[in-house]
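Incident log entry.

Two folding requests arrived from the same account within the same minute. Monitoring flagged them as a possible duplicate submission, but the sequences differ. Recording both here for audit purposes.

Request one:
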Amino acid sequence: MTPARERPIVAIDGPAGAGKSTAARAVAERLGYAYIDTGAMYRCVALRCLRGGVDPADAGGAAAVAEDIDIEFQPLSDGGQWVVMDGEDVSAAIREDGVSDAASHVSAHARVREVMVQRQRELGHAGGVVMEGRDIQTNVFPDAEVKVFLSASPKERARRRAGDLRDRGLPVPSVEELTRSIAERDHRDATRATAPLAAAPDATTINTDGMSIEQVVDRVAALAGAVEGDGCSA
């Protein structure tokens, strides 16, 4: 029998641009929990594929990369983190648009997900962690004490993506182009054979359209606080 966790696992899933990363970092900082961005792990695999000339759509090639790659998270004082791949800080490199698209492809491969899920479970099994991605509450930690599915309309997510690119001084496609790209990725993520994007039946779904980040964080932190106050079990 798995021993009781003293602090809960907060599993936050949702489509690209729904505000998962921002909310998860802020929730982790408020609660004093560790923060793990599982999407960054798939982005690392994608980045190394691109750098090594491996087609992200090649299941065997991507799996070989996933099995060999070294990924570490180094926390920052503001609740964020450095993502270190094979000893290199790739925090910025993995956020480039080409890597985002490649990550959607590599994450669809069963063996890649198997390898990454095992690492994610090792990182978060003890609790006291906010873990975000696209299959945390359905596949990685279906026994998580707090399950949240963040959503937002494709147009709202495109608007946020444009603002993020603009803030980083990167080229900004039109909102229409971004909306189309987001819809295509949603379809790939929701229809992949292995661990498709979906809200768990017992997850709390939060539509973040029109919500400030503070409102989202308040809601998620309250869910975690209620569970921690009642005691955790797994």
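Request two (distinct sequence, not a duplicate):
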Amino acid sequence: MKISMRISLVFLALSLSISAARGQSGPTIQLTSGIRPKSVHLGENVSFTVSAAGVEPLSFQWRLDGKDLAGETNSTLTITGAERDDEGDYTVEVRNPEGRTISPPSRLWIVPPSSDIRQSDFVNSTGVRMPYFYHLPERYDPGRRYPLVLHLHHAGLYEAAVLDWFGNKPGIIRYISYRQQKTDPAILVLPTHEQNVGWTDADVSALSELLDRLLSEFRIDPDRIYLSATSIGGGPLMQLLAKRPNLFAGAAIRSAVANIPKAEVPLMKHVPVWGFESATEGSYTRTFIADLRAAGGRALLTVYNSGTHSEAVTAANSAPHIDWLFSQRRGQVTLPSLAITGRTLETTYRTGADFLDLRGSAQGFAYPVSKVSWLNLALNRRGDAIGTEAWSAPGIPLAANRTNAIVVTATLNLTWVPVEGTTTFNDTVSVFSSPLQATLALQGNQLILNWTGGVPPFRLQRSSDLGVPAWTEMGNDLTPPLTLPKPAGIEFFRVVGQ
């Protein structure tokens, strides 16, 4: 049996391409921090700087959303007193006598001042007080439903410190940037603690009840409730996903430092998650994503080859996970998607074969897929597929009489920051291998043919010569046992299933 698989991933934001224009060998652009996406409050100053190399002279032209910015022809672009209309995707075209190169888009988010963030208070049914901060769209309309983002912060923050944090770290409120509020306004809620303590199990219960209060108080789109977390906030995020898996449309986790029992992960397998982590820090996020994939979930994972915990958190802000998160809808995994031809109504495919052939295609961010690989968790066997955008994986071994969870993963050499690493995306197919086993017994002048395993419909074939077999069909859609007349000479029989 062949199962044809197709992985497709089309993102809404950045396309990381810094090669010269087709047919030319122009200057090169180094992806330094100077060209990294940035977030600033309204009225603040900000600059982008491009580092380029190549045959002199080099000339520069900065653009906002693809349109030339008049007079901005230096290697550094400075914006003084950022205004709402300054928000968007910035690129720079670098030219020299040999050609031209355009940088990847660098998003600039312009966010409201911290004074626009409102504070409220919540006490749950057991008396746990949970202060929280929130922001409503500027033109909040009670007749319209809005997406909700619930962000769980890292360690060291509590009620008295959060507003200062908003002022110093504008990146966390990019969910309510002015362009976001104009095109797809959302409600942002940031729960916290009375004191400088970590998240507890009692907090998770309070968070769940707080969500119910928000759903009753504001006009929230029930199909667009999102979770976001950083560091120690990753633990309660996972617990909320397990506690109320049918509530959320998607989640983003930056360098979690907590995890949940593996047995709880299948509860949330239908919720798409994007995780970020450095290879040099704890593997909580990587473990969670691996467990999620093994359970049949679809997840993205960006791993940086180097960097500290805090550096990984900062690096994650450069990835287009906000656009990705807002593109998700509850019960509909928008990105990535995978279609299986054949028995699409079954959650687990059944086969009588000992091996499986998979094939499909993979795309992500309009950037080359470096490899596609597979892992059969039942056997702990893995291998690389043949090809990338169009790939095939023939002869994947199956464990007999077991459900084989086969995780297919596409890899991009892409992190959106000047740190090497990868971003992977996946889907998982479950295959139950049930090899067909037949027995043949003589009872008087009759043969009793019986079999177990395999996948119907079953066909019976016979041949009188195995040296050069010519199999003759004896029946279709058969069920065991079969009674056959005793042959006059030597006969061979075989049962053929799916």
